Amino acid sequence: MTYEQREIPFAAAMLDLADALGQVDPGQRLERLTAHCQALTPVSAATALVIEGGDRQVWAATPPDVSDGLTGCDSWESGSPLRDCHHLGRPIPEVPLAHPYARACWPRYAPAARDSGFLAVAAWPLSHDGTAYGALCLLSQRPGQLGSTTERIASALARATAIGLAHHQALAEQRRLAGQLQRALDSRTVIEQAKGILAERHDIALQDAFEMLRRTSRNSQTPLRELAQTIIAAPRERSAAPPQTPPSPPLARDKAE
């Protein structure tokens, strides 16, 4: 295999998985990870898992028709290389699925994998800067598919994926905080506008206008921002026209004339 055939696709895969700016959710990132693993290594299948929010599981597998017994909640609850790798935070080197260790640690996963024609399994954590996000698992149907070259490629792809997940989460948190700040600033602007309208309408100080606004909000159980928007949207009351000065009565001499 030439340099271009191996290194250029590998570099492209690393950049793809580490990308944090693209609109890629965790499930799509895992799909790319498993697809890259199968394209760059001789393994028969790849599965991956990310834990979101402490308990929500996001799965992906390549090829997509991998047995349900090797992915999903069933394999997680009964034990699997993905679960053990995620909890341990370190790689699980190649384990033959017929080995007593596999049968003891993964009593449902190992038979299901063997029934699907797989001979061995290995796993790598998706972790970055001390935070564990999930795990990657490769399965082989022939001896030698999980050799040292495959291990190095899988480890690098797993690290790139974890970096992408970490940066994506950090960016999402920054966007969330920025959105909160913008909403707070928008609310402040709306409330200040409503205060000005009330102060002008009732000829009172701005502080008194704010107290009126807050009191009305509390008594009507209406959010302050919503009440302020209502005041701004309502047509302003027109001031009464000043009284007209009555015409002066005619003078006596005018009558005489």
From TrEMBL:
Cited Pfam families: ANTAR, GAF
Organism lineage: Bacteria, Bacillati, Actinomycetota, Actinomycetes, Kitasatosporales
InterPro entries named among the record's database cross-references: ANTAR (IPR005561), CheY-like_superfamily (IPR011006), GAF (IPR003018), GAF-like_dom_sf (IPR029016), GAF_ANTAR (IPR012074), WH-like_DNA-bd_sf (IPR036388)
Chain ranges of the ANTAR domain: 171-232
Keywords: Kinase, Transcription, Transcription regulation, Transferase
UniProt GO MF annotations: kinase activity; RNA binding
Name of the protein in question: ANTAR domain-containing protein
SUPFAM superfamilies tied to this protein: CheY-like (SSF52172), GAF domain-like (SSF55781)
Ranges for region Disordered: 233-257
